[in-house]
From TrEMBL:
Gene3D superfamilies on file: alpha/beta hydrolase
Superkingdom per UniProt: Bacteria
Keywords: Hydrolase
Record protein name field: Alpha/beta hydrolase
Keyword Zinc listed: no
Organism annotation: Cohnella fermenti
Molecular-function annotations in GO: hydrolase activity
Residue span, AB hydrolase-1 domain: 13-233
Amino acid sequence: MHPPYRSVQSLTFVLIHGAWADTSFWDGVSAELRQMRHTVHAPPYAGHDSDPNRQATHDMIVKSVVRYILEQRLSDIVLVGHSFGGTIIQKVAEQLPERIRRLVFLNAFVLPDGQSVAEQLPPAAQAAFAKLRAASPDDTIALPYPLFRESFANLGSKDQVDWLYSLTPPEPAGPLYEKLDLKKFYSLPTPRSYVYLTEDNVFPQTDEYSFHPAMSARLGLYRLIKGSGDHMVTPRYEPGYVARLLYMGARD
């Protein structure tokens, strides 16, 4: 006897991009998920896309996403965060737990209560980002090409990386250094998944500094989905593959 088979569920995805990106990051993945008959939203947020405010705070970013979900009357959603977007979905979940079906973290930060993104970085990276921030005229951090190429886009060809780098804006620095109160997040029963692209080189992949297991383990009980890929190239150049991984993380 064969095990029961269930066709693809139709889900509502809300996709939250990370730092040094905008909503176009999700264009390919969104198209693939829609081909799979899902509903997809990729809301812009404060300090990014068409918003020129380089002084946007983390709270302003979160309010942008919360407002979008409420204005669109979305419910039973799969809320996906990539990279820095993980911190955003942590805070959105605190405000709208009744509207969220599942949280999915895609190579994303999962902050401990009372800490910031910057505090999760190895000491050498913290020092490098502090220098870049200090040298900025508008309190942003622009990724140097060598860092982007070797850490964020390590699997790409030179042409792919050059194109992606041309689309990489400076990131407002303030939210990366804000310490977040996440006590409520860690009290929520919201189901959660971690999708991990295993060749991501943003972190040195040690037990202390890594997306998995260092970040993912903070989720407590969670579903782990692994696939091959890096931080920026794979989501943009293999969107169908990433869409399938996200669905595996999201489905019942």
